[in-house]
Amino acid sequence: MTFYQAAVVALLASTVNNAVNAEEDCTSIVDLACGTEGFSTLCSVLTDVAPALDPDVVSSLKTVFAPTDDAFAAVKFDLVTEEALLDILGYHLSTFELTGECGSLIEMADGKDTRTLCNKDKEPVFQKGWANSRAVMPQFDPTAGIAVCGDATVYVIDSVLIPKDYFVDEEGEVVEDNVQEVIDAPDPNDGKDYFKELLIAKGTVTEGSNTCANTNPQFPNINCLGEDGTVDVGPQAAANVTKGYVGGMEVDIVPITKSYYQAGLCPVNVHWHLGSEHFSAGEFDCEDPKKCGPYHAADDAAHDDDGHTDDAGEGDSRRQLAGDARKGYQCNYYDEDDSKFTAPYDWQFCDKTMEVGQTYEIHWPHSSAGACGTPNQYQTPFYDGVFCNLPLDVFQTLSAQDIASNVGVQAQVFTIVNDEAYYYPNLFGGMIVDGDFGADMAIYTGSTTGTSRDNEVCSQYAPITWQVDRKCHMISASSFDKMCADMMAQRDDMTDDLYAHGAREVTADIITADNQQTRGRGLRLRKNNKN
User: Strand pairing of 63-67 and 93-94?
Assistant: First the structure.
């Protein structure tokens, strides 16, 4: 809050106190605005327009945002009708109390929502209207509310809140959306989206030679069981990662238990699967159709892929081509009555089959043999990144423990929402580790995944370490789209990872390692024990 705003708050508080002491009565919102310096515009608006407000709403107000004269001076209302002005005024009033919690919504008197947002120190200092710019968000102090008649609280705010269906044009005029098309303004960019082009631009550095190309040894899938009916492969993924679960395959391999960065590995790819491949009780295990995500008629059919295996060995899961990508487990967040799960998102970089409300499991393969710290670090298929600096003849001399200690995958499960309160700018760089993100990890050894493998056909890329976040999280669609933009800017062509791959079915006990451990920040590693 600026010094000016703080002074106004003090002045408003003084006005209320003087009125109460002098008259032993409360002060109305109109009297407060009209009797306080710096609020003459609000006074005029309230005097002219407020009588048209619903008396029942006015009498039950709990929260009022009071823009200063400077706030009103920053925008113009010459192009809006009196009805629109009433709508905007109602967008500053609410019959609900302000919670002051980061990301919380409050319904305003016009039926539309505003949202409380926090600064980098997680302090609630912004109240954003739908159409207010995120670059300069309305600022207020939730601790400096002033009580007025009717048990309402007034908060001084430094910008006018702009609701949905309006926007502020280049001249500072508030304009209704249905008028936007008739405004003839020249395009200084000549129709080009330079910011979008910049995000995916490939400069001279990224146009160089890809030294990791075609280093994938292309090991074929094999039967999980040998001719004698015994397990004939290394441990597989994706496993049940519910805390306490123990696989049925006895192994003496130890997974990487510290962070991959500390172990000398770097991410060499990022891709994701439709639904989660791992299973975590209470997190990605949805059984209630109303909570499991958007419904499609095809979801009632068996989601087996068409038998084609793409270059990544993940199975053909382009939904618009195969139409039957196998869907994995779903999180329990979905609510068809909450617009953040249903409002469409205009995908700019990710494949347009990506869907708001859907669950996806992101994988970040890591390797100590990747082209770490160079323009060739990220590769599609990810095997090229894993084996970039590991010739096949050298690989064949490594022990199973050597492989598990030098190759690993991070996995984190998300439900996509159309809500910028859940934006994270660097999904490309690896799993999120903050707060609940990455706080409860399952660590074990397994294999590569994808729908070309199941409980009969297994991967030979094993054993590798898996570090899996047991909790499902919400993430904004824009976070995914930013990740796709980062992928498009890499030296290697990552187009084949800009869509969701199909999900492998959870591995059977017999091919799942018994070495699953639990890691939480600030907690010691604990190995899950058999009963």
Answer: antiparallel
